Amino acid sequence: MNGRPLSAGGAPGHAAQLLEAHIPGLRRYAYALLRGDRESADDLVQDSLERALSCWHQRRADGDLRGWIYTILYHRFVTDRRRQRRDLGRRSLAEILETEQPGVEGGQEGALVHRDLLRGFAELPEEQRAVLLLIAVEDFSYRETAQVLGVPIGTVMSRLSRGREHLRQYINGNRIHPRQRAMTAA
Predict the structure, then answer these.
(1) What does the CA dihedral 153, 137, 166, 44 come to, rounded to 10 degrees?
(2) Residue-wise burial string across 49-83, b where 16 or more C-beta atoms lie within 10 A, e elsewhere
(3) How confident is the model over 128-157, as pLDDT tens digits?
(4) What stretch of H or E contains 91?
(5) 107: phi then psi, degrees, rounded to nearest 5
(6) Which of 23, 21, 63 is nearest to 148 (CA)?
(7) 76 vs 113, which has greater pLDDT?
(8) How many other CB atoms are found less than 10 A from the CB of residue 14?
(9) Is residue 143 a contact partner of residue 132, using CB atoms and an 8 Å limit?
């Protein structure tokens, strides 16, 4: 290989041009999945783009490029999370938030509501958070979300409903601790 990206039509750079249009959305999605860690989000996007370029020949020419690249990013994210869990052990999300979340000064009610929403969102199970991000932030349809995550549409709808309900409960002050959530999910 001469260092230039592969393309579907044989023209170097064509694949990169097609993928480039999706970078802002991929960065938003990765940033949200990684709870604001911009550096890791950029690394995840770069890894995903490299994977897409190296596997460009495997992509269906008539397939949905947007869904394909988001699927690659999500699978890279899940793989990295599993690797981190094996390597670092388990820390609860509440512990992570308490040590890494900056405080809000004064009586800024809007900022507090926003902070609570972000904390509630961060406490969602990974599966529900991914569905909410794709549908609410990236404007994916249920079908597209199901394809990206590799689950049936009914599962997407269920996770979306449960995620919204958890957020609603969290905002209303009904905090569900991880142990309680595990018992209610069973």
Answers:
(1) 90
(2) beebbeebeebeeeeebbbbbbbbbbebbbebeee
(3) 999 998 998 888 999 999 999 999 999 999
(4) none
(5) -100, 50
(6) 63
(7) 76
(8) 15
(9) no
Closest alpha carbon to 29 in 134, 128, 161, 107: 134
Helix (H, G, I), strand (E, B) or coil at 136: helix
Query: What is d(CA 25, CA 31) in angstroms, rounded to the nearest whole number?
Result: 10
Please tell me the predicted confidence (pLDDT) of residue 95.
58
Tokens 């370029």 found at:
53
pLDDT at 94: 59
Q: What is the C-alpha separation between 109 and 87, in angstroms, rounded?
A: 39
Model confidence pLDDT, tens digit, residues 57-89: 888 877 888 999 999 999 999 998 888 777 655
State the DSSP code for 133.
I
Domains present along the chain, CATH in parentheses: 1-90 (1.10.1740), 91-186 (1.10.10.10)
Distance (Å, rounded) from C-alpha 139 to C-alpha 66? Answer: 12
